[in-house]
Amino acid sequence: MKIQNPKYFFVAVAVGLVILIAMCIADVAKASTMSAEEIKLYDTTYGFLPTQDDDPGLLFVAPPGTRVFVVKDDGITSTVSVDWVDPKAPLFYGKAAAVQANHLYTITNQDLAVVRYTNQGFVTGVLSVPFKMHLSDHSVSAGSTVGGYVGYQTSLFNSITVTPVIAGGLALIQTQDVNSSSQSNRAGVSLATGIIGNVGPHGSGVQLGILLGVDYLGKSADYKYEGKPWLAFEVGYSFGQ
To answer: How many structural domains does the chain have?
Structure first.
C-alpha cells in the first residue's frame, strides 16, 4: 500500500491518535458492563442493599426518578452512588426505606433488568460500513473500515439505544481507475459522524444507524469522490465492531 499524499497520512495519524486516546480514557472509565454509567430509574426499584456507610440491617428502595452513578459492575452486582432522590418521595415503602443521596448501595443486575431506566456513558470501538452511497452522483460502492470511533450512548426504557459517534483514521478505500473498470483498494483517510443504536432490551434486537462521511486519498490519486460526502445505513448490520 502507498499513501498518495503524505499530508493525509499525517492527518490520519493525528485523528487516529486523538480517537485512540479518547478510546483509552473511555475504556479505563468503563471497565465492565455498566461501570461509569449514569442511570435514571423510571420505576420504584427494590433490591438495594446498604454498604458499610448505611444501616446494614435495613433494605432500601429507589423512588421513581432517582439518579445513580454506577461505581462498579462485576457482571452480577452493581455498586452505585445515589446522585439525586425526589425530595417529595416517601421515606418508607413498607418495611424498606428510600435510598438517600450521596450514599452507596449494591443491587443485582437482575433486579435492574426488570425496571425501566435510561443509562448513559462513553463507548468506543471500530466502525466498518458494508457500502457507501455517494451523494454527488447517488452511486454505491463497497464499504470499508472507517477507523476508531468514540460515542456517547443513551438508552431509553431498556429497549432503545442511541449513540452519536465520531470516527476517523487510516482506511482502505475502494477506487476505480478512470481509464478502465479495474478496482483496487488504496490507503487513505476516512472521517465520519452519525448515530448508531439498536431496538431491543439491553442492546439486543435490531441494529439501526446512519453515518455521513468523507474520504481523502490526495489529488495525485485522482479519486472520483475525493472529499465528497457519502452516506451509509445499517439495518441488522452492526457498524460498531
So the answer is: 2
Q: Which residues, 6 or more positions from 55, have their beta carbon under 8 angstroms from its beta carbon?
A: none
Burial letters 68-105, b for 16+ CB under 10 A, else e: bebeebeeeebbbebeebeeebeeebeeebbbeeebbb
- Give 197 or 235, the one with higher predicted confidence: 197
- Whether residues 132 and 15 share a domain: the answer is yes
User: And the C-alpha cell for 177?
Assistant: 481507475
CA distances to 122, 124, 135 from 151, rounded to whole Å, are 6, 6, 25
Residue type, 122: F
R_g (Cα) of the chain, nearest Å: 23
User: Is the model's pTM score more than 0.70?
Assistant: no
**Residue 204 φ then ψ, to 5°:** -90, 165
DSSP helix/strand/coil, 209: strand
In three-state secondary structure terms, 113 is helix
Could you list the residue range(s) of the whole structural domain that residue 76 is in?
43-115
Cell of 217: 486519498
What are the pLDDT digits (tens) for 10-25?
555 555 555 555 545 4
Question: Are 195 and 210 contained in the same domain?
Answer: yes
